[in-house]
Amino acid sequence: MESLKNKLTEEGRAIGSAILKVSDFLNHQIDVQLMKEIGRELADRFKGEKIDKVLTAESGGIAVALATAEAIVCSKALFAKKTVPNTMTGERYSAEARSFTKGTVSNLCVDKELLKEGERILIVDDFLAHGQAALALADIAAQAGCQVVGVGAVIEKAYQGGAERLREKGFRVESLSRIKSIDDGNVIFG
Fold it and tell me: Where are the transmembrane segments (predicted)?
């Protein structure tokens, strides 16, 4: 996706050899037009799949899930919470996910009422690094008896191996931009 690659090159900022800061347009402040393009592109990549819900983890994936669900003409974008709110009083599905960027472990959870057996789920997120969030979301979908049709990522950090882990487990993975490495402050696509 050329517009995304241009945005990453012009406005993304490499920090060290593993972090790419995209706060100006993707996961802190949202470039709405770019997000609409991202949603359309992910919808196109999974065209032909009957998708009942788009699933993500809070909070970086929420805008991606909304844009993708709108482009698919899917009525539901669902996000797993990282902490259990007081309003989640019933049973829930949960799975642990480690964030290597934040250095934390979250217990992602979804209210059992929001996932129905047999639903076809597309998992999306802003970043795909080690694949921990996507694997946790796939686990939650499996607990509910749902089928994951694929995983869509805006930015794949290929050097961290998450896409390969997901593919090894049989998941279709589509990344809109693939970063081969970050070297001396430069983003290398590939």
Answer: none
